[in-house]
Design brief:
- By secondary structure, the chain is of the alpha/beta class.
- The protein has one domain: Aldolase class I (TIM Barrel, Alpha-Beta Barrel).
- Helices cover 33% and strands 19% of the residues.
- It has 8 helices and 8 strands.
- An 8-stranded parallel beta sheet has the order 1-8-7-6-5-4-3-2.
- Strand 4, helix 4 and strand 5 form a beta-alpha-beta unit.
- Helix 5 runs parallel beside helix 6.
- The radius of gyration is 16 Å and the shape is globular.
- The mean pLDDT is 96.
Length: 220
């Protein structure tokens, strides 16, 4: 796991009428990853974008597409998002009847594997699979909508996962997503996160100065 903090701006907060341009600007502003939230209106109560949009956005940047699938059943969409240009594919354990099979499906596409835990999802759901994945995404809001308030009660879960990863000497990124801003980003880092997902803060603070906001989240 890299010690440098990576910033993965969520395009959920971008201007959807000019999404390609927004991604180019994020690239120039120093984003490490581009976080793509995929919602189906079923697993979570909202609908966002599908593989076709990801495919159209792919030529806009060479940055890593960090694709978070909040969809169920998840398996039948993995190839579509992989073909569209996802680099990391993250799914929820509750969205599949067979976690190992889903991990294998993503691996077979040559992609990195992430598993996401909702605020109330227990670490026990993924403990047996931790050695087979590249990333754990801790949700610090209930998934489904952008702009929600950060839930500090997820930080102990992050600390526990960091402890497990360190003890087992694993190379796994710990990502946090949900209400991350300049006030709470330090607490998230101290709890073990090395990738911060942020939408509203990056796009709206300091009059939308993307470069400044990305750097503040990284260094605060």
């Amino acid at each position: 796991m890299s010690s440098r903090i990576k910033i993965s701006p969520s395009i959920l907060s971008a201007n959807f009428s000019k999404l390609g341009e927004e991604i180019v600007l994020l690239d120039k502003a120093g984003a490490d990853y581009i976080h793509v939230d995929v919602m189906d209106g079923h697993f979570v109560p909202n609908i966002t974008i599908g593989p076709e949009v990801v495919k159209k956005l792919r030529p806009c940047t060479k940055k890593i597409f960090d694709v978070h699938l909040m969809i169920s059943p998840v398996d039948k969409y993995i190839k579509s998002f992989s073909d569209a240009g996802a680099d990391i594919i993250t799914f929820h354990p509750e969205a599949t009847p067979n976690i190992d099979k889903t991990i294998k499906l993503i691996r077979d596409q040559g992609k990195k594997v992430g598993i996401s835990l909702k605020p109330k999802s227990n670490i026990e759901l993924i403990k047996d699979h931790i050695k087979k994945i590249d990333l754990i995404l801790i949700m610090s809001v209930e998934p489904g909508f952008g702009g929600q308030k950060f839930m500090p009660e997820v930080l102990p879960k992050l600390k526990e996962l960091k402890k497990i990863i360190t003890e087992k000497k694993l190379t796994i990124d710990l990502e946090i997503d949900g209400g991350i801003n300049f006030e709470n980003c330090q607490a998230a880092k101290e709890a073990g996160a090395n990738i911060l997902v942020s939408g509203s803060t990056i796009f709206k603070e300091n009059n939308g100065n993307l470069k400044k906001n990305i750097e503040l989240l990284r260094t605060n």
